[in-house]
Amino acid sequence: MSKKNSKAKSKNNLDSKICPICEKSFSWRKKWERDWENVIYCSKLCQKNKDKI
Ligand SMILES: [Zn+2]
Description:
Blueprint: E1 16-18, E2 25-27, H1 44-49
Antiparallel strand pairs: 1-2
The structure holds zinc ion.
């Protein structure tokens, strides 16, 4: 029996995104629970850095 790779996107809150600045993936955090759809950057630092590009 082979193990199935369960990389299918599950529909829970623990989503993740890729930060366009540092290109790292970051996961859903409690502090973003109301604003997750609008979260683009992994941190405030990256949010600042967007102006430098
Ligand atoms: Zn980042």
